[in-house]
Amino acid sequence: MAKRDLTKEKIILATIELSASLGLDNISFPRLAEYFDIKAPSLYNHFKNMADVRTATAEYLITQLIARMQTTLPAQSSAEALRSYAYIYRDFAREYAPVYSLLNAHPEIRTDALIQLNRELLTFVNHALSAHGVAQSEILHYARTYRSMLHGYITLNQLGYFQSQPVTDDESFDWMVDHFITLLPTH
Q: Does residue 54 form part of some domain?
């Protein structure tokens, strides 16, 4: 690849692709340079270091997730929106399993862009909870519970839990989401 053809997005996409075979923690400028068949210093024209690549990759992932949410959730009722949010989030986490941890990298990577993107992602849950009739004073508690529940389930599933039969991991996920929604107060 010629140096002039290299872009930030191509580097981000290569980071995601290489993470599937090498693991996210093993991605480095030399590995990326090898992938592009260039010299590692060429990458410095786009990013200062791997921390910047990880930050840009996190921003890219959250932007992609938000775009998926935007195509489905706004037209749905509150319960449908919460359910769809869960499945879109889970499917996204499966698709991007090698870099899933970057979706939740906000506390360790504090950039204004990531803070804003995470707020935007949360508006889907907050809006659905509000439309369901959850009191404003309780929305934050329910949103945190919902996000923790989804993240915990996805993380444990990625670690290999929930393999025992006769109940599949998807059936348990369905049950979890449905029960959360049925337990929501309506005011």
A: no
State residue 72's pLDDT score.
87
- Name the percent of the chain lying above pLDDT 90: 84
Looking at per-residue pLDDT, the higher value among 29 and 3 belongs to: 29
* Alpha carbon distance 56, 7 (integer Å): 12
Residue 79 lies in a domain: yes
Give which of 48, 22, 25, 44 is closest to 33, Cα–Cα.
44
132/64 same-domain check: yes
- Structural domain includes residue 53: no
Alpha carbons 15 and 47: distance in angstroms, whole number: 13
Q: What is the pTM of this model?
A: 0.91
Contact 44, 33 (CB under 8 A): no
Asked whether 2 and 9 are in contact (CB, 8 A), the reply is no
Output DSSP code: residue 149: H
138 vs 163: CA distance, rounded Å: 34
